[in-house]
């Protein structure tokens, strides 16, 4: 069975929502054997909400082998070409790390 974790993109129960916290969540998820890290893609929400694709891009070095995904993506709002380019750019990090293993 494979498990995944969702990045904390907004404050919840007083927990912070910044890049350092997301990187720690991603690092711990990978250490614990989680397979996938996901983020939502919302533009409007009642609370402050970090951008999903940008959040995924910010944690790539913290979890270099995890699969990254959006649990929601908004091609109608973002534009299908720009969303595809953004997600393909994030996906490229995995190809680059496999081609140049440390």
Short description:
By secondary structure, this protein is of the alpha/beta class. 43% of the residues lie in helices and 11% in strands.
Structure overview:
This protein is α/β, with parallel strands linked by helices and 102 residues long. It has one domain (4-99): Alpha-Beta Barrel (TIM Barrel), CATH 3.20.20. The protein has helices at 19-31, 52-58, 75-78, 80-99, and strands at 4-6, 36-39, 67-70. A 3-stranded parallel β-sheet has the order 1-2-3. The protein is globular and about 35 Å long.
List keywords for this structure.
102 residues; alpha/beta; TIM Barrel; three-stranded parallel beta sheet; 4 helices; 3 strands; globular
Which class in CATH terms? Alpha Beta
Any idea what the CATH superfamily is called?
Enolase-like C-terminal domain
Helix-strand category: alpha/beta
Which topology does CATH recognise? TIM Barrel
Q: Based on DSSP secondary structure assignment, what is the total number of beta strands?
A: 3
Q: How are helices and strands ordered from N to C?
A: EHEHEHH
What's the Cα radius of gyration? 14 Å
Strands of the biggest beta sheet: in what spatial order? 1-2-3
The best one-word shape is: globular
β-strand amount: 5-15%
End-to-end Cα distance: 28 Å
Helix content percent band: 40-55%
**H/I helix tally:** 4
| Biggest β-sheet strands, sense, barrel | 3 strands, parallel
User: Would you identify the CATH architecture?
Assistant: Alpha-Beta Barrel
Nearest-integer average pLDDT: 83
Poorly predicted regions? none
Number of domains: 1
